[in-house]
Design goal:
This protein is mostly helical. It has one domain. Helices cover 61% and strands 3% of the residues. The strands form 2 sheets. Strands 1-2 form a two-stranded antiparallel ribbon. Strands 3-4 form a two-stranded antiparallel ribbon. The longest helix has 29 residues.
């Protein structure tokens, strides 16, 4: 078996980060920032919705489409997590053991998620109805098609997570489970081929995933089954986003091995501002479409073009942080800044806590909020709009205070929950025992094989 690759973390000009962005032996110094930017977009969008500002303001269509951050996260995961497998297949070296990959992903996501779930219930009064709801949420069961019903004051009982935003965690978890198996199959199919055929074979595999994801969407629109809402928040309906990220991973490894990008793609490498400009135009185009009844839901013929636009926008958005000289240009310098790198590091806990924080900030800042909650829970007969009584508050005040409080909570959670578990992910199991004298030397990394 070949010796493990050395992991590089960039040169001395890169800002130090407690959890560097590593993938297949390479550091991408601009990628940390995307999580920090994305988490802020999600919070602003949710604050606009939960205060009613989105519904009554001309800015509403723009706040709704800040959800673009979530597709970007999925594409980013596809790139970072598939790159080590793609590198192993292209170089015909052993890939990371499946069990080790699963262990790393578990320690990266699940402890932070469980702490946030329990913490939001205890600190912010979220409700969990029975042990089956607890178990279903702890295991992200809805991501596997297992309905988990949760009851909320004023909205009744629905099949959803206690932390509603955890649906994206469920999508990520199912991708984690499937990725090593997919990578193993594709690696076997291209094994023994020429370097060119191995490269093309890996790209063909991602193209198949892209087509499957879009066919799943088209089939859902045409058939409109009773389980449409639940299906929309599962892996198959975001598979094309992961597939494009995985294709970018194959191209990235190919560049490392001396294989050039096609000229029409390489042209974008040193034009980061233009890439972001195209992303902005696609974002504006999507704001002109009819809004769905809920994020990523279906609303007539809007669903398919919107999701395709999200794929294109995410690819252009991420391109400058993956391809081209990562130390050239003002935009990349900003992305490598210490503040954005740190925001990216704490983004997971920020994302998991921010919805409960927004609701708490509304309790603090809206006069008579207790009365409004009681009205929403028991609307008078014939006045269904009373159930929306809690969708109020000063948008700017709620957004700013919620961001600051979420930042503080996430900083603490990152320091005392995420980092300790990340330090364990490469340790021998025997070294984790209290009586073990084995020296623990693992350095935590945010992503990687």
């Amino acid at each position: 078996m070949s010796a493990p690759e050395d992991v590089t973390t960039g040169d001395a000009a890169d800002p130090p980060t407690p959890v560097p962005e590593l993938s297949g032996g390479a550091h991408f110094p601009c990628l940390d920032a995307y999580r920090g930017i994305g988490m802020t977009m999600v919070l602003v969008s949710h604050a606009g919705f939960m205060t009613g500002f989105m519904q009554r303001s001309a800015l509403g269509p723009y706040l709704v489409r800040l959800e673009l951050a979530v597709p970007m996260f999925f594409m980013l995961s596809g790139f970072l997590l598939y790159r080590p497998f793609a590198k192993a297949a292209l170089t015909e070296r052993p890939a990371l053991a499946t069990g080790r990959f699963y262990r790393r992903r578990f320690l990266r996501i699940i402890p932070a998620y469980w702490v946030a779930l329990v913490g939001c219930v205890l600190l912010f009064g979220l409700t969990v109805q029975g042990w089956t709801t607890w178990l279903g949420n702890l295991l992200v069961a809805p991501a596997f098609g297992v309905p988990v019903e949760n009851c909320r004051p004023g909205t009744g009982c629905r099949v959803e997570y206690v932390l509603p935003q955890a649906w994206s965690i469920g999508v990520e978890v199912t991708f984690y489970l499937a990725l090593p198996l997919y990578a193993m199959v594709v690696a076997r199919l291209v094994r023994g081929r020429s370097a060119r055929l191995r490269y093309l074979g890996l790209l063909a595999g991602t193209a198949v995933l892209f087509v499957v994801g879009n066919l799943a969407r088209i089939a859902l629109v045409l058939t409109d089954p009773s389980w449409t809402r639940q299906a929309l928040f599962t892996l198959p309906f975001f598979l094309d986003l992961f597939a494009v990220g995985m294709a970018m991973a194959v191209a990235s490894v190919g560049l490392q091995q001396g294989r050039a990008l096609p000229r029409f793609l390489a042209w974008w490498n040193e034009r980061p501002a233009l890439c972001w400009g195209v992303t902005g135009l696609l974002f504006l185009a999507v704001t002109r479409l009819e809004e769905p009844p809920e994020p990523f839901g279906i609303s007539g013929g809007e669903y398919l073009p919107r999701q395709f636009a999200y794929v294109a926008a995410s690819a252009f958005w991420l391109w400058p942080a993956i391809f081209g000289d990562q130390h050239r240009g003002r935009l990349r310098a900003v992305l490598r800044s210490r503040s954005l790198v740190y925001l990216g590091s704490i983004s997971l806990s920020f994302y998991l806590w921010h919805l409960a924080v927004i609701e708490q900030v509304k309790r603090w800042t809206v006069d008579g909020y207790d009365r409004l909650e009681a009205l929403a829970q028991n609307p008078p007969a014939g006045n269904e709009l009373a159930g929306l009584a809690t969708f109020t508050g000063d948008f700017v005040v709620v957004a700013v205070l919620s961001w600051l409080l979420s930042f503080a909570i996430a900083s603490v959670a990152f320091r005392f929950v995420e980092l300790p578990f990340l330090r364990l992910k490469d340790e021998p199991l025997r070294s984790l025992l209290p009586w073990s004298r084995t020296r623990r030397t693992g350095r935590p990394t945010l992503e990687g094989p």
